[in-house]
Amino acid sequence: KLAQMEEAPLYPGESIKVIAKDVMYICPFMGAISGTLTVTDYRLYIKSIERDPPFVLDVPLGVISRVEKIVAQSHGDNSFGIEIVCKDMRNLRLAYKQEEQSRLEIFENLITRAFPVSNGLPLFAFSYKEKFPVNGWQVYDPMAEYKRQGLPNESWKISRINSTFELCDTYPAILVVPTSVKDDDLSKVAAFRTKGRVPVLSWIHPESQATITRCSQPLVEPNDKHCSEDEKYLQTIMDANAQSHMLIIFDARQNSVAVTNKVKGGGCENKSSYPNVELVFLDIHNINVMRESLRKLKEIVYPTIDEDRWLANIDSTHWLEYIKMLLTGAVRIADKIESGKTSVVVHCGDGWDRTAQLTSLAMLMLDSYYRTIKGFEILIEKEWISFGHQFAVRVGHGDDDHADAERSPIFLQFIDCVWQMTRQFPAAFEFNELFLVTILDHLYSCLFGTFLFNCEQERVKQISTKTVSLWSYVNSQLDDFTNPFYVNYEHHVLYPVASLNYLELWVNYYVRWNPRMRPQVRQSWGLMPLLLVPSLLLTCAHWGFASGNLVLDPSPESPASTGPHALSA
Amino acid sequence: MLSKAAGGRPAKPSFVSYVSPEEIHIREPAGKEVNPYLLPGELLLCEASTVFKYVQEDGSNRGTYGKLVCTNFKVAFLGYESASDDNEPQFKNKVIGESDITLHCIDQIYGVYDEKKKSLYGQLKKYPEKLIIYSKDFRVFHFCLRCTKEEEVKRIVSGIVHHSQTPKLLKRLFLFSYASAAPNSPDAKNRTVMFDTFKDWHEELERTKGNVKYEVVSVNEGYRVSEKLPLYFVVPKSFLKSVTESILVHQGRGIPIWCWSCHNGAALLKMSAFPKEQDDSALQMPKLLDGIYKTIHAPPYEVLKMDDLSSSLPSLQDIQTAYTRFKQLFLIDNSIHFWDTDVKWFSLLESTNWLEIIRRCLKKSVEVVEQLERQTTNVLLIEENASDLCCVISSLVQVMMDSYCRTKFGFQSLIQKEWVIGGHSFLDRCNHLRKSDKEEAPVFLLFLDCVWQLVQQYPPAFEFTETYLTVLSDSLYIPIFSTFFFNSQHQKDTIVSGESHNAQSSPFRLLTVWDWSVQFEPKAQALLNNPLYAEKPKPDKSQRKTTRFKHHRQLSLPLTQTKSSPKRGFFREETDHLIKNILGKRISKLINSSEELHSNFREFYDSWHCKPVDFHGLLLPHIEGPEIKVWTQRYLRWIPEAQLLGGGTVAIATKFLDVMEEVQKLQKQMDEEHSQTAPEDADAVPTLRNSARLSSLFPFALLQRHSLKPVLPTSTWKDLEDEEDLAKRDDEFVELSGAD
């Protein structure tokens, strides 16, 4: 009977793998809590009705980075323990009785289900059978998005050269390249760029025609090799913008790193080969530095914050400094486009980490469309998913190699930058904080197909028919994700100030497991009802009701309502 | 994309000179004489012409020529070519212009000699070519004197240095010249309670239902007892009858003075400690304490806890040191300076310790709240003079517990009660007379910063905005208001009656800062009111509350009683502490063991934060490290790099005001439809059009940025010592294991 009350709710397609009674969850904030543990193919679920209100821990297995057995001494009978390290800034400790027969079962099931890919099983997203009224897979249509930007035009064409992913296996099928470039030349340029990631258009300024193009590094090699097709190609990109006789290449790396890369076959554009090109280094560090920084950040925020040393600790992680560097780089790019009317080329090494961060942030600053909910979804679909940010590798979906050096919180860093922008411009974005947190939660959850796989080629075969898109869920309940203060600053470029005076730690994400830092709906301050008043009044007016004693009740809303798919502690 | 916006704003070439002062041919003001606007009683002391004032923005040589004057009230710069009218700032101070600095507001003066910056003080032997003035409201002025006549340079520099830095007599304060020269304006109706009459205190007692156990006394009329104490104050009933003689002996020290009563009857009191060396006072103690006991402790269930703030909070010296370091972070010379500071931001901020001091004050206040609210215990705050940290803590406790103190008039009344009448030594703490640095400590600013933390954490709970707090902090340095220019009520009364006799004329009236119309037009005053303030709910709600509260009270009383069952014994223990304390043997751990205190506090704090916030009930601040923030508006407001065009909370306020306006319009339409009578005008809402163009530092950003170009860090990076390995590691050629 007890077990029934402590049973886990299931999503369509989800099935229970193991249930164990009297498992203890050692909560760093509330102490040890004893309840029923359920492991399904999607989640780890503990419910305890000992507490009032009942305690629930509901963790998607996708967030699990590592599972380890530990021996816990101080919990009486419950001497066997599991420590679970999560990707979303928390660790969980479970303890259970030694003689319990299901002991092995729990551990084994957890390992198998948390790391399905390593165990030859499919990810849960392929079993998830929820039906939503809208289909999120239709959100992004590259042709429509390019059309919105005014493409094709006389200088830029839509090319299908990569429709079979032969030119570049990590690029999407549809690319925008200069009209005059022949396919043969494009193949030669591809041979000169790492992984064939040729310069292609990401965004075009509606008035000045200045463009943001993205690519990977040139294969200069130690002997300063050059490629005349590549040189000509960049010249064509410059010529496509009549407003400027310059082209600026933003290399996200440090100068020294770019140069050392020559030894390994890479490098950066050689100034002598590219006339009228300015090369700017943005000094942003690599994925290893970012991973290490986030590890340090987790140490200082979980489980507790050392109040006396807070500022020194936050300083020591450098996390906000890296955010500052990224925003600075993106502002420089946006400024060159907007004020300089100059086209830019952005690359790092492979052109799928820092490049994606920079182009998408610059586009967010330049184009108010991307600051709407639908626009932001398109921005992610385009700059990140279709252009081959290695989500599977960087997040490590379903993979048990927690020490994999290819994992890195690059996308998280991008979302953090977006959050910093929403803090600085609280009325400029149609979406709210919950929207960003939800995106990050499902980056790891493996519930939706959106962030699975590394590139379009891998995705194209199966993903839209066999999985559900995150945007199906989001767009079915837009009210939850809408910023009530949104004002459409159409045609306004937003330049965030990349000063540490303004950058702050995203407490409602990184420190949200700490009950003392409960997420509050600070931005809406419970004013939602009031903001709905005009439309209500209109309705009233329409029906001819008297309005003499209209009462505005700005009573506080309960803290962040989290929706059915949110992760709860 | 910005073409529309950029084109909409015509350039003002006349206002700004783009050539360096060396290149320019000094144009004498073409027949147009610029004269300073002088207040009544204000005298021009010295002036210098063709002074070049730099535009702070970019450290370039852009700026404007004008006259620099020094009066007995301010230093002012008057540009030869006045700004065009469309540049008129929306939020204008009627007393202090944007290029005016009152003498009391001058913080530091530097001279530049051969590119070297030197602090200017005392008698000057050599006169600088550039003058830099840092003001206490964080403006930085750069004046170039190269084109000014030598004579005038000498006069203006030594004039400014002299009038702003040499010690002054209280009677020489501008306050008095202004008050005698200004026309006697009729007393403006102000709902702020001044607490200078018996009635004010009596009503406060009734409001808080403290009149059961406390009463107003007039024993200090004519300052017979103490010059430090106000004319009227509140003590436990019958307290005075039993100990009157000892009061006279100790000049008002050792009297527990009532600050405020909680809804459950527990009271917050403060007391100035006996001087440590007066050992003989110990002889009086038992008697005195007996008095306190009899009165406060009379009902069986109540206990009194004492908190010696000087041992549990940072010293005034610590506060002063922290603030001196902290403010320096925001006195920014130019853009390069700003970004250099930014690179080391967190470690610099940490080293000032200012935020930590704020955190400790908030934490202490929450501890006191816990004792009052949950333990129904009277709390007695003790401090040397009971007029510094006592004011901070008692005011903060009231702001957190009493929603009346979160309205504008309630807050102003609170400042009157605890600070102005409560005897905070504004004159010494602000060092208005430049007499001694030793007494200087920004205690009131510390309080305002703590309140700001609450305001930014719970905007709908306050009737006023952060702009209100910022202009209030600026008003500390405007010597036409008496509010912040005396050490005590006694000092003010004495000097005012003395001056009135001298003047022979009708007694002059000193202005209070609470009359905001002196400084701001109604349109600007509207920005001090918070549009997001959640109005007090309807009475039926509060009805429910009181019934629930009664129930709560019945429950809690027996509980507390059992807790303190050995009443007499418990008290004795306390007396010991008090005696020890008064004898100067500082005991840091009072009453509870610190551990118990800590866990009580934690439990209370955590459980409060678990519940949804009632903006009209108890309000506790978040005191975790990340939640204590820098008061951006006050400290960054004049730094052009820190402006966000179209950003900041002002963007939200704008949206909100738009909606309000729409609601009013619709309501009006509907009223018109239903009743044919003409509706009365709705309350004016300030219009903040086009939030996309507003700066986040609105309404202060008067140094308009001349371009829409973004600000970019000039120095961005510091070395990564520990991460060098990782940074060198190669991430450029990722082997896609299993991905291909």
Automatic annotation (TrEMBL), chain A:
Q: Which residues form the Tyrosine specific protein phosphatases domain?
A: 317-364
Report one GO cellular component.
Answer: cytoplasm
Q: Which family does it belong to?
A: Belongs to the protein-tyrosine phosphatase family. Non-receptor class myotubularin subfamily.
Cell compartment(s), UniProt: Cytoplasm; Endomembrane system
Top-level taxonomic group? Eukaryota
Q: Which residues form the Myotubularin phosphatase domain?
A: 136-510
Bilayer-crossing residues are: 434-453, 525-545
Question: Which residues participate directly in catalysis?
Answer: 348
Q: How does it sit in the membrane?
A: Peripheral membrane protein
Sites where the protein binds substrate: 261-264, 286-287, 348-354
- Name the Enzyme Commission number(s) assigned to this protein: 3.1.3.95
Q: What is this protein called?
A: phosphatidylinositol-3,5-bisphosphate 3-phosphatase
Q: Which organism is the protein's source?
A: Crocodylus porosus
InterPro entries tied to this protein: GRAM, MTMR1_PH-GRAM, Myotubularin, Myotubularin-like_Pase_dom, PH-like_dom_sf, Prot-tyrosine_phosphatase-like, Tyr_Pase_AS, Tyr_Pase_cat
Task: Note the PROSITE patterns from the entry.
Answer: PPASE_MYOTUBULARIN, TYR_PHOSPHATASE_1, TYR_PHOSPHATASE_2
Q: Which GO terms describe its biological process?
A: phosphatidylinositol dephosphorylation
Keywords assigned: Cytoplasm, Hydrolase, Lipid metabolism, Membrane, Transmembrane, Transmembrane helix
Q: Name one GO molecular function term.
A: phosphatidylinositol-3-phosphate phosphatase activity
TrEMBL record, chain B:
Could you confirm whether the keyword Membrane appears in this record? no
Any single biological process term in GO:
phosphatidylinositol dephosphorylation
GO CC terms = membrane; sarcomere; sarcoplasmic reticulum
Q: Could you tell me the keywords of this UniProt record?
A: Cytoplasm, Sarcoplasmic reticulum
Instruction: Report the residue ranges that make up the Myotubularin phosphatase domain in this protein.
Output: 195-635
Q: Where in the cell is it found?
A: Cytoplasm, Myofibril, Sarcomere; Sarcoplasmic reticulum
Q: What is its main location?
A: cytoplasm
Known Gene3D superfamilies for this protein?
Pleckstrin-homology domain (PH domain)/Phosphotyrosine-binding domain (PTB) (2.30.29.30)
- What InterPro entries is this protein classified in? MTMR12-like_C, MTMR12_PTP, Myotubularin, Myotubularin-like_Pase_dom, PH-like_dom_sf, Prot-tyrosine_phosphatase-like
Q: Which domain of life is it from?
A: Eukaryota
Q: Which family does it belong to?
A: Belongs to the protein-tyrosine phosphatase family. Non-receptor class myotubularin subfamily.
Question: What name is this protein filed under?
Answer: Myotubularin-related protein 12
Native organism is: Crocodylus porosus (Saltwater crocodile)
Classification of source organism: Eukaryota, Metazoa, Chordata, Craniata, Vertebrata
